[in-house]
Amino acid sequence: MVSALAAFSRGEVIHPVRTVLTVEERSRYLGIMPAVLGDVMGMKLVTFYPVNAGSTFPTHNATIVIYNTGTGQPIAAMDGRLITEMRTAAVSAAITRYLAPPDARVLALLGSGVQAHSHLAALSCVAKFSEVRVWSRNSEHAERFAREHGASVADSAEAAVRGADVIVTATSSHEPILKGAWLKPGAHVNAVGSSRRDWRELDAEAMANVVVVDSREAAAEEAGDVVMANATIFAEAGEIFAGLKEAPREATTVFKSVGLAVEDVAAAKLVVSTAS
Hints:
CATH topology of the largest domain: Rossmann fold
CATH superfamily of the largest domain: NAD(P)-binding Rossmann-like Domain
CATH architecture of the largest domain: 3-Layer(aba) Sandwich
Largest sheet: 8 strands, parallel
CATH class of the largest domain: Alpha Beta
Strand content: 25-35%
Number of strands: 13
Distance between the termini: 20 Å
Number of helices: 10
């Protein structure tokens, strides 16, 4: 993910902003995500169905197809759900390694779904957390997550965030669930949910900190956290990875992720190379 996003921010990737078809507003969406990354190109088709929450059907489904850029020959088609979960968390972990306090010990997870699970796994590769807190609007889900992972259940989002070094927001909230007033100086937030321009997880005070995004163009189109707060973007993650911008390690930072096709193509290429 570091390599792919560095290439993206250096302008080495052909990468239009995702096209999203609204099947039913606030309920059913289809995303179309193409990218050309060196010798491999491809596309992810992803359904985002918040209407499925609480049912036996997942809220996200995806299919990724990749091709040889030189010949146009197909290489592979694969299910994209697990790749989406893993690459999203991997990007958060990569930027956390650059931006979080070096002695980060307390992790707060707002949300207890698949991204909470994948973020706990990925972030644990870049920091040694002595305390993991989880909060969810569904207390039963939070308690189940806590049992599975040895975390503690916070009785409110504020209780989870106060004093935390690293925070993850992974919800489909339409209104802020995290307030900037709760953040300790130097904390780092990975905001990975609510990727619609009229949905948000963080309030304007939180977004007044140092903001890093995966794509400036995509954030301006899709990230309600950025758009609704009129937030100033300090850098793309790829600019930091490529050494084009210096990581502001001492600042309170927010990484707003909307998810990019280049991440899916790079991950799919890795799956194929590992399997072959």
